[in-house]
Amino acid sequence: MIESQAAKDESAGACQAQVGAGWLALAASPVFALMGLVAGFDAPRPAFCASGSGILPIDDMTAMYLLMSLFHLAPWLKLASRSRVRS
User: Fold this and answer.
1) Local structure of residue 53 (DSSP, 8 states)
2) How many Cβ atoms are within 10 Å of 32's Cβ, its own excluded?
3) What is the SS3 assignment for 58?
4) Chain segment 8-28, per-residue pLDDT in tens
5) Are 36 and 62 in contact (CB under 8 A)?
6) Model confidence pLDDT, tens digit, residues 23-44
7) End-to-end CA, the chain
8) Structurally, how many domains does the chain consist of?
């Protein structure tokens, strides 16, 4: 009987961890997008006459945060596809 209760507790803990991981996965993309926005506003503006200016007028950290936001979009796309299937 004790082993059965321990197994139930372990199963409930695993379920809670899975739910928490799902919420964390959904939080990643908006957080990285927000960090990219903040980094973009805080970045120094490139000089017009800079010889090594890049294609985009953003710095490296802004580009990294925006790319990380795109890489973490998969949970949002899965959520959107599930809601379309139910409708």
Assistant:
1) -
2) 20
3) coil
4) 666 777 778 788 888 888 999
5) yes
6) 888 999 999 999 999 988 886 6
7) 44
8) 1
* Residue located via tokens 């507790």: 9
| Residue ranges making up the domain that contains 39 | 2-43+52-86
Can you give the pTM of this predicted structure? 0.65
The first and second tokens of residue 84, run together, are 């379309």
Amino acid occupying residue 47: A
Report CA Rg, the chain.
21
Asked if residues 38 and 58 have their Cβ atoms less than 8 Å apart, the reply is no
What DSSP assignment string belongs to 29-72? Answer: HHHHHHHHHHHHHHSPPPPTT-TT--SSSS-HHHHHHHHHHHHT
> Quick one: tokens of 67?
């790319």
Counts for the chain of helices (H) and strands (E), in that order: 3, 0
Q: How far is Cα 48 from Cα 58, in angstroms, rounded to an integer?
A: 13
